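Contributing: when you submit paired examples, paste them exactly as shown. First protein:
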Amino acid sequence: MLKSYEAIYDHGNIQWLSEPPKVEHFKMLVVIEQPESENNLEHLKQRMPPPELKGSIKWLDDPLTSVISETEWNASLARTARQFAGDPEAFK
């Protein structure tokens, strides 16, 4: 499973812009965002959310079970199946 983390690589050092991965050994896939100027890293730091937002977003373990009931979920799946089958009434 792939997870994304933002970091700045500066002369051999990694500065994590968010919570670093909680593993000791891992394989990395590195994608480089080329800065406009090699000496200007400020534009990368601007992507950080303001400190006052820290902790304001709560992730649920399984958001679907908290948002809709199992009956609503099954009805949604049935409607999608009807849409794929070409039932024009399923789009209303």
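Second protein:
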Amino acid sequence: MRLDGAAEPVRAERPLVATRRQNDLAEPGLGSVGLDPAVGAVPTDGQLRAADGLRAVGDITGQGAFTHVAMYQARIAVRDVLGRPGPDAD
């Protein structure tokens, strides 16, 4: 394979091609709690509440597919579940 502008071809034993990730919100049954499974991400409020008694963190929120974002969101959601006041996610 030759990359654009490269003088030499690229050789690989096992190429990896990553295109994109997409949430499948129908799979976890979000329609059963009043959320639209056709949307690409679960909408949440500042405390990561998606519905009554339901929190969403990580990739499924559409706020960045990164581990550090999920960890940040998880801290806010857990704090909210425990009834501890704190700032909203930004």
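If you have annotations for the second protein, write them as plain sentences, like these:
The helical segments are 67-81.
The beta strands are 49-51, 54-55.
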